[in-house]
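ok trying again, last paste got cut off:
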Amino acid sequence: MFNREQFVINARGHSNISGKHRTTWQLTKEMKLTPRGHCIIGVESTASTADLPDWLKGHLQNGGTISIQLQVGEENFYGSAVGHPDLTLDDDIDVVFRKGHYKSKRTIAIKCSFVADDLPEIVISKLKDPMTRFSVIIQKQLF
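nice, full thing came through this time. structure:
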């Protein structure tokens, strides 16, 4: 069951997006991206972990589960991730979703059901276009 509370992060594509990272995916407020940023799938993000609303921070810091919808044009990719009490959620630039359990101030959630390398080629090709605008829709998942 899902509730209606959701938070949307918007970002845009970049020509250096590769989607090759096997343990994370990331959004950044930065405008530029080097070819080494394999986990970054979007730049000029409208939010970092510090910008998350209090209801979402509380849910994540209580170990709550979230559903994630990556909406790139007509393409939608769905997943889930889990919060943890050790998440500080206070980075001013990035949002990182992690498959594993590593936590830093940039980490929004762990145990993410997908990483950059899991995204379909059609999605990655759209994210390589700097004109592509896309959304990440996050909802609290309640059981």
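cool. The first strand starts at residue 2 and ends at 12. The chain has one domain: 2-141.
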